[in-house]
Amino acid sequence: MSNCLSSWLRTYDGPMNTALALQATTRALPKVLLHEHLDGGLRLTTLLELLHARGLTPPAPDVNGLAAWFDDNAHAGSLEKYLEGFALTVAAMASPAAMRRVAFEAAEDAALDGAVLAEFRIAPLLFEAHGISGEATIEALLQGLQDSPALPLNQRSGLIVCAMRHLPPSETVRAARLALRYQSQGVLGFDLAGAERGHPVAEHEEALKLIRDAGMPMTLHAGEADAAERVLEAGRAGARRIGHGVHLVDALRDPQRRHLVDEAIALGLHLEVCPTSNVHTGAAASIASHPITELWRAGVSLSYHTDNRLMSCIGHSEEAAALLAQTPLTATDLVAMARQAAQHSFLGAAQRQAALQAIDRAASRMRAA
Description:
By secondary structure, this protein is α/β, with parallel strands linked by helices. The chain has a single domain, classed as Alpha-Beta Barrel (TIM Barrel). It has helices at 7-11, 16-27, 44-53, 63-74, 79-93, 96-112, 134-146, 169-181, 205-214, 228-236, 248-252, 258-267, 275-281, 292-297, 316-326, 331-343, 349-368, and strands spanning 31-33, 115-122, 157-164, 187-193, 219-222, 241-244, 270-273, 301-304. Helix 3 packs across helix 5 (79-93) and helix 6 (96-112) runs parallel beside helix 7 (134-146).
């Protein structure tokens, strides 16, 4: 990533020319991006410009200093430090023009990284504190995605509305109603994000019922900072996909709880795994020991994602490079994950089928090279 020492390179102990060659290889891999928070993925140059435009003081005076600030926070071993950057990015984005720009650039960056489909997410009600309504936020973000010739709205991209699960259920209901208002205009699904431990999905049953009754797909954060049981609770509540879900591996390793993994597979749950972010937030000790390999080998449907390109200083290609360099996973595995991600996308059947065909063409080119 420009102006940013990629997180995977910090832990790579091989020759640099090998690392760069691996990164070039992974850039050619076809990808489907299902889990990326727009307020965690701004370009560094854009963030600096937006902060100055709003008269806000950045934590560092230039792009390199700002990159170092995010990098230090990501590697501080503290979820609190990792999350500090979101207050900064939300404040910087708090105008419709800025939101359009961020969404447009996110789509362009995903396409440059090899994405054939991309879904982005955000909690629009966070911007109310800055005087921007939820409606204005969604409309600006949808317009930004539509403006991208590489990943235009509804054809190759869409938006997921997040609610913050630590807030009162009434706020989650507001977010759900907001998502449903734009269901036919580019909003693809609904999510519960934020502090997981102590805030089970059952607290927000009213909002989830609204979403289920309307037929809108759900992807709920679960099993990132809490136990494997939370993954199944989310699935039973109607989630088709799970944000992170990595603690499902604890059940895989425990014969008394293995039935939870079997149930997750039977429900057809797809895990949106974010390996580098998981290391930064303490959900995994390292990429090498990350549960993604174990879960994949056990037959769990999953794919790999960036979560927050800016906060974790990682792109989709670099995420793939880290997995190939530090785990037993192969390029064939990563292509198979991309196919599963496309099959579980919330975009329409025609878009999913076109993505699968694009993945197969790219895989054929890679085999022939």
